[in-house]
# Entry
Amino acid sequence: AQSVAQPEDQVNVAEGNPLTVKCTYSVSGNPYLFWYVQYPNRGLQFLLKYITGDNLVKGSYGFEAEFNKSQTSFHLKKPSALVSDSALYFCAVRNRAGANNLFFGTGTRLTVIP
Amino acid sequence: EAGVAQSPRYKIIEKRQSVAFWCNPISGHATLYWYQQILGQGPKLLIQFQNNGVVDDSQLPKDRFSAERLKGVDSTLKIQPAKLEDSAVYLCASTPTIDSYEQYFGPGTRLTVT
# Structure
């Protein structure tokens, strides 16, 4: 079975400060990991993915994430937060190659305070 | 290119009534997904199509939910009869192939069952 945990329902950060949104996963075999962002009244948008290779992956809008196999984590990070980054962020895991079924976490609401 | 289209955007029905949602994926995308997103939770896959065939419907409550993609392009998800716990946002997503990593999501249909 596969699952994703996002331990924080809400993260608040001041504009210009670094941000981290946490994610841990559980999956048999090699994990395929993803971050999606959801703005109000809009569908989910893909931010970045880890499939293989470099543990630090870079994505859209200046976001990056670090895959840590020993800690089974895939935390989302950004060096300097913008007010426009305020949104709902979802971590997701794909179970195996060839079966594109995403399992999502419960989401973390990020609020960037001006 | 045009994104994933969904209609209606909002629907309010009484319990035991029927409702249908429509999705038109990005042109040329062979794989289509329907997700249910209950408030405070992450999206949960209901059904996955590859062209006009079902790949995975293990999470679809088949006693009341049905979905079709007859011509391998647009798709309809139906609920009959609806229950209060069906209140959620129903998201449609598509990918060019079944192995594609990035899923493209529509804006969703918000269903309220009273």
